[in-house]
Specification:
12 helices; binds magnesium ion; binds uridine-5'-diphosphate; single chain; 8 strands
């Protein structure tokens, strides 16, 4: 790890973390600090027209609470079909801290987030949902933890009672299942809402995959992490963009991105099946030798054929899930396309 390029960039950024000496400013000496540190908020937005104004009005006072830092808000319009873009552009004219990246179509939240992360220039980056379910009041607290030395500040949903029962249960099952069988551990009940130092963001940008399951990638890069608890809010405006089917595919995506256990599983099933079949064959032969041929055994034959036939179909399906992903990955298409920046 010593010769790792990440390591070098870590050192440079750490130097950036050295706090400004207050007494230099107090004594009025010519030591001018040219570099005010900046925090970038990245907001993936898809059809949130009703909520943009509220988002804008909520964020601005939060920025005023941290006067020693600059802010920028990278709003990524993920191919919205309502008046989201018009409203976002209006925000950029009122407040130059707001920037808009318009994608050429709807690429999905993970890709929109990737676009925003690539565009952001801040010393720290916070992905946040546009629906205010991630409370912006937490931002100053996260910044405090970052200034105290954390490279990643996780915001954990201590209470998810605003989410429907089924979503809570399936999420719980997903985290448990994923962490059991994956090489990396995704912290439970932590969404994309978090603060990342520039060094973490740069590490993240080095990960080349096109299937971007951000929660997994965030966890994969590691770094010094602290966790803050918060209560998940209800959506400010509009409805969720994630249906049950979309969530299922999202979970599948996450799981297959970080685990090959489903591929290996079938080898063990195969070995178990082969051993049992062998034992059964020995029993049949012995029985035939001892007591002669009895009933033809049509039923047991059919059961065996159907059972192993369906096992084979399932295992081929699992292979398909992975091969499909390898296929799209090898095509090397960009994760998103930008139509225009405002
Ligand atoms: N989002 C997006 N592209 C999509 C779907 C959603 O950029 O294709 C954004 C959405 O506008 C919101 C965030 O992702 O800012 C989270 O979406 P949502 O609130 O619907 O998810 P939930 O909180 O229900 O999991
Ligand atoms: Mg939401």
């Amino acid at each position: 790890m010593q010769n790792n390029p990440h390591h070098a960039s870590l050192e440079t950024s750490r130097q950036g973390l050295v706090p400004v000496q207050p007494d230099a400013a107090a004594t009025g000496q010519a030591l001018v600090v040219s570099h005010r540190r900046k925090v970038s908020l990245v907001v993936p937005i898809f059809n949130e027209g009703d909520g943009i104004e509220l988002l804008f009005k909520t964020l601005c006072p939060i920025f005023d609470q941290v006067p020693d830092l600059d802010f920028e808000v990278i709003c990524v319009d993920d191919g919205s079909t309502d008046d989201t873009l018009t409203k976002l552009i209006a925000c950029t004219t009122i407040d130059s801290r707001f920037k808009v990246v318009e994608l050429s179509r709807n690429f999905g939240k993970e890709s929109a987030l990737t676009a925003g992360i690539d565009e952001a220039t801040g010393d720290a980056l916070i992905p946040i949902d546009a629906d205010l379910q991630d409370p912006p009041e937490l931002i100053p607290v996260m910044i405090k933890a970052w200034q105290d030395g954390a490279e990643v500040v996780l915001a954990r949903r201590a209470n998810r009672s605003s989410d429907p029962f089924l979503k809570r249960q399936t999420a719980k099952f997903f985290y448990r299942f994923h962490n059991q069988f994956s090489s990396i551990q995704i912290p439970r009940n932590v969404g994309d809402f978090r603060l990342m130092d520039r060094v973490v963001v740069d590490a993240l940008k080095q990960l080349p995959e096109h299937h971007r399951f951000m929660k997994g990638l965030f966890a994969w890069v590691g770094f010094k992490t602290v966790t803050i608890d918060y209560v998940r809010q209800v959506r400010a405006r509009g409805g969720t963009k994630f249906s049950g089917w979309k969530l299922w595919n999202f979970a599948l995506e996450g799981f297959t991105s970080f685990s090959t256990v489903p591929l290996k599983f079938w080898s063990y099933v195969g070995v178990f099946g082969a051993v049992s079949t062998f034992v059964y064959a020995v029993v049949i032969v012995a029985r035939t030798l001892i007591s002669g041929v009895d009933v033809p055994g049509y039923a047991s034959l059919l059961v065996a054929i159907l059972f192993f036939g369906s096992l084979q179909l399932i295992s081929v399906g699992v292979l398909g899930e992975y091969i499909g992903r390898i296929y799209t990955e090898t095509k090397n298409r960009p994760v998103y396309l930008i139509r225009k920046r405002y």
